[in-house]
Design a protein that fits this description.
Its main location: membrane. Pfam families: FtsX (PF02687), MacB_PCD (PF12704). Belongs to the ABC-4 integral membrane protein family. The chain folds into four domains: about 200 residues, no CATH class; about 180 residues, no CATH class; about 220 residues, no CATH class; about 160 residues, no CATH class. Strands 4, 5, 6, 7, 8, 9, 10 and 11 form an eight-stranded mixed sheet that branches. A six-stranded mixed sheet has the order 24-19-16-25-15-26. Strands 17, 18, 20, 21, 22 and 23 form a six-stranded mixed sheet that branches. A hairpin with a 2-residue loop joins strand 9 and strand 10. It is α+β, with helices and mostly antiparallel strands.
Length: about 850
């Protein structure tokens, strides 16, 4: 009880110091809990949607997959006879054929895309009674003919659609128009998909290109018949293994699996950044408790002198840490729910609707947040607590601070050097790797070891680095600058820990900046060297035939190149099978992409019954020019194609691609199985580049799902995409940097308290308030720049090593973004100034006589 009282008294005696540490715990726990609540809410939203839309049993084609687009762009389908047989099966209450396609684009009369901007699909299909499970018609009526369409209310609201508006649907089989005659509202939350409905005959004809066919059949069980029993009955009626049969649960699980993979990426990425914030927070907590223990050395000595044991002193400090963890974690759990709601609102503004009615806070989330916050806080306070318990009563009563252990310092330095050396060796091994997959593991090991090594060796580095920074920045400020330097050097362990907190976040920023800049520089360099096409046409969906035709009829073009990806199984001369497929393109592609060959010519690969392979494939399987490969085209015949060229795989574009001609593809694939173009290229006639560019944009204006880009556009988009990704990562890393700033503030504030008497004496002998504040600000700037210098140097080393691995994939250019690096370094100085505002202000307000009288 006495230990608890003492801990409570000390805890509340340092409310301001503890508050900053609690904020660090709060932010980290809030980010963890917010991530878990947000992802759990998204899972709940999708689970409800999948559960309510699935029939008791669903019959679909054997080859159909919920997350896959057929090779030819038209959904796999069933004959209507299957529906008739399903209706006669035992235990069936009703059966209805459905038509659905996600390979569509819907535009309004101004050619604006009505689809989601978040990547959610546009779904077109027929309206059935099964849809009444999840939707209700709130305006108008269901479509009754080929010129009528019904849309979901969310899409109508987002795009300001109303009854009577005309929509054009662009499908693989052609374009068709219809007017809105109805609006249907989801009974559950729609995460963002745009949905349009037609009558059954129109959906079959326009989406499937055939009448009397369905993409799936939804079956409702009669009373007393379970889904499992109904599935067995359907297998007997339709034939086991003939079609894909799924119960409602199996259908929902399959859909959930695809969404779950995407959600896990988001979840673990965000938890990773939360972990970084926790790691930074550990330094803050260690520094806080180390300084508080040092300031209470005499008090600890008195406690030991009157009978308190080491264990009790240790326990007292750990109880304070537990109180800090409990308060910070409890507030963090509540803040985490707020963060989750904020993320939901943010996603809503981007087009993904998530309702707060589905807000999911599992009991494990607050428990995980509380445990994580408390355990991390207690572990971080353990070293200061152990150090406090080891102080002898006489030494504590005699000294104002905890005595330093010189031997421990040398041991720490030795361990740090060993870890740093091991990390450097691992990074060197990664940079020397012959395969990116082999080097990635060494890169990860090198990052971890070098980071830990720099953290451990921080106090040793602080002496030299701080002196160099001070010589450049502080000596010009005379005695005040020298005092700031000595203050920063007074406790190298504290300076090292404070700088390390900032170092971690900035190291990751520098690493990612180097990697991102190198990727952009490499890709743009590769474009300049390899791409001969003037224009590139591409979209999120494959290019429909009508857009292809419009492109081919554009005036001012010297040629247009089609580029298709084929599902095929290759068998090499050594008997090994490969299912990576191959690429079919027009012979002009050899001009559009200047691929070097190690043997043969690429032009010959576009001849009849000929193909090319990449150099890595050729080396692995012993393939030479003149060899023949067996190529089994999915949905078509098996061909024997002669290898006419081996392309050099030391590139970033089309690495490993195997080419054949469009003519060869047509010889072995029936017309109905030929896939649409994934991308198309075009070359302008000499001197007509500007006119052809404008004409091509005009020709493809009716198809807003595709973008027309020249090489300049393509480079800029690549730069923008990587820049957006990096900005998002920097935003997440900002949490760790904020925690690091709190650490600098806390360290300075406690340092001011620790030096109260010293400050009073300096004021008494003539140091002005202005000079005092400047001294504290300079000390803060030096510590921040120390952390920034270590972090940026470490991060650039990581980034350069990562680029060596990227070079194995064809991205050979190393580019250091010096403006970003310099900007971050200068920004760190402002971080130091900002962090010193409150401590410097409080130091300047000290009463000189009271400060001198302080013990």
């Amino acid at each position: 009880m006495t230990v608890l009282k003492t801990s409570m008294r000390n805890f509340f005696a340092h409310k301001g110091r503890m508050a900053l540490s609690a904020i660090a715990v709060l932010l980290s726990v809030a980010f963890v809990c917010g991530t878990l609540v947000f992802t759990d809410t998204m899972n709940t939203t999708f689970d409800k949607l999948f559960a309510v839309t699935a029939s008791d049993v669903t019959v679909s084609p054997k080859a159909a997959k919920s997350d896959d687009t057929p090779q030819n762009g038209v959904p796999e389908s069933l004959p209507a006879s299957v529906l008739q047989r399903a209706r006669t099966a035992e235990g069936v209450k009703s059966a209805e054929g459905g038509v659905s396609s996600m390979n569509v684009t819907v535009v309004n009369s101004h050619n604006d895309n009505m689809g989601s901007s978040t990547g959610a699909p546009t779904i077109a299909g027929n309206w059935t009674s099964n849809d009444l499970r999840s939707m209700e018609i709130t305006s108008g009526h269901a479509p009754r003919g080929p010129t009528e369409v019904m849309v979901d209310a969310d899409t109508a609201d987002k795009h300001h659609l109303k009854m009577g508006d005309e929509l054009r649907t662009i499908a693989q089989t052609g374009d068709f128009k219809a007017r809105i005659v109805g609006i249907a509202t989801f009974k559950v939350t729609n995460p963002g998909a745009a949905v349009v409905y037609f009558d059954t005959a129109t959906a079959q004809r326009e989406l499937l290109g055939a009448t009397g066919r369905f993409t799936q059949i939804g079956i409702t069980a009669a009373a007393g018949v379970s889904d499992t029993q109904l599935k067995q009955n359907m297998a007997q009626a339709l034939g086991t293994g003939t079609y894909k049969l799924q119960t409602a649960k199996e259908n929902a699980d399959e859909n959930r699996k695809g969404v779950g993979a995407f959600m896990n990426v988001i979840k673990y990425a965000m938890l990773g950044f939360a972990g970084i914030a926790f790691l930074v927070g550990i330094f803050l907590i260690i520094n806080t408790f180390s300084m508080l223990v040092a300031q209470r050395t005499r008090e600890i000595g008195l406690m030991r002198a009157i009978g308190s044991s080491r264990k009790q002193v240790n326990r007292s400090v750990l109880v304070e840490a537990t109180l800090l963890g409990v308060v910070g974690s409890a507030l963090g759990v509540g803040a985490g729910v707020g963060i989750a709601v904020g993320l939901m609102k943010l996603m809503g503004s981007m087009g993904m609707d998530l309702s707060t009615r589905d807000l999911t806070v599992k009991w494990t989330t607050p428990l995980a947040g509380m445990l994580l916050g408390i355990v991390v806080t207690v572990l971080a306070a353990y070293l200061p607590a152990r150090r406090a318990g080891k102080v002898s009563p006489m030494a504590a009563l005699r000294d104002a601070g905890t005595p330093a252990d010189g031997r421990a310092g040398w041991v720490r330095a030795l361990i740090g050097l060993v870890l740093t050396g091991a990390g450097g060796a691992a990074l060197y091994a990664a940079a020397s790797a012959k395969k990116a997959t082999d080097g990635s593991g060494m890169l990860g090991l090198g990052v971890v070891l070098s980071l830990i090594g720099f953290v451990v060796i921080g106090p040793l580095l602080a002496g030299g680095v701080v002196r160099v920074i001070s010589a450049v920045l502080l000596r010009a400020f005379g005695p005040v600058g020298r005092m700031a330097e000595r203050n920063a050097l007074r406790n190298p362990r504290r300076t090292g820990a404070t700088g390390a907190a900032l170092m971690i976040g900035l190291a990751l920023v520098a690493c990612l900046s180097v990697v991102g800049s190198s990727m952009v520089a490499s890709a743009t360099g590769e474009l300049d060297k390899s791409v001969g096409a003037d224009f590139i046409v591409q979209g999120k969906q494959r290019i429909v035939p009508q857009a292809e035709k419009a492109m081919e009829q554009t005036p001012g073009l010297a040629h247009v190149t089609r580029y298709k990806q084929l599902d095929a199984t290759l068998t090499s001369p050594d008997g090994q099978k490969d299912t990576d497929g191959l690429t079919a393109a027009d012979p002009s592609y050899a001009q559009d992409l200047r691929r070097a060959t190690t043997a043969g010519t690429l032009t010959a690969a576009y001849g009849t019954d000929a193909m090319s392979v990449g150099s890595k494939y050729a080396k692995k399987h012993g393939v030479h020019v003149g060899d023949t490969l067996s190529v089994a085209f999915k949905g078509g015949a098996t061909a024997r194609l002669k290898v006419a060229a081996i392309t050099d795989d030391d590139v970033a574009i089309d690495q490993g691609a195997r080419y054949t001609s469009i003519a060869t593809m047509k010889k072995y694939l029936p017309a109905g199985k030929i896939p649409p173009n994934v991308i198309m290229f075009a070359k302008a006639r000499d001197g007509q580049e500007k006119q052809a560019y404008a004409a091509l944009k005009t020709a493809l204006k009716p198809y807003p799902q595709y973008e027309v880009r020249d090489q300049t556009d393509y480079k800029q988009e690549l730069k923008d995409q990587i820049g957006q990704l990096l900005n998002m990562v920097y935003g997440l890393l900002a949490l760790a940097i904020i925690v690091a700033i709190l650490g600098v503030v806390n360290t300075l504030a406690l340092s001011v308290v620790e030096r109260t008497r010293e400050i009073g004496l300096m004021r008494a002998i003539g140091l002005s308030r202005r000079q005092l504040r400047r001294m504290i600000r300079m000390e803060s700037v030096v510590i921040a720049l120390f952390g920034a210098l270590l972090g940026l140097g470490l991060g650039m080393g990581w980034g350069a090593t990562a680029q060596k691995l990227l070079a194995l994939e064809g991205l050979k250019t190393l580019e250091v973004p010096w403006p970003t690096i310099i900007g971050v370094f200068i920004g760190s100085a402002f971080v130091g100034l900002f962090a010193a505002l409150i401590p410097a202000f409080r130091a300047g307000r000290m009463n000189v006589l009271n400060a001198i009288a302080t013990e």
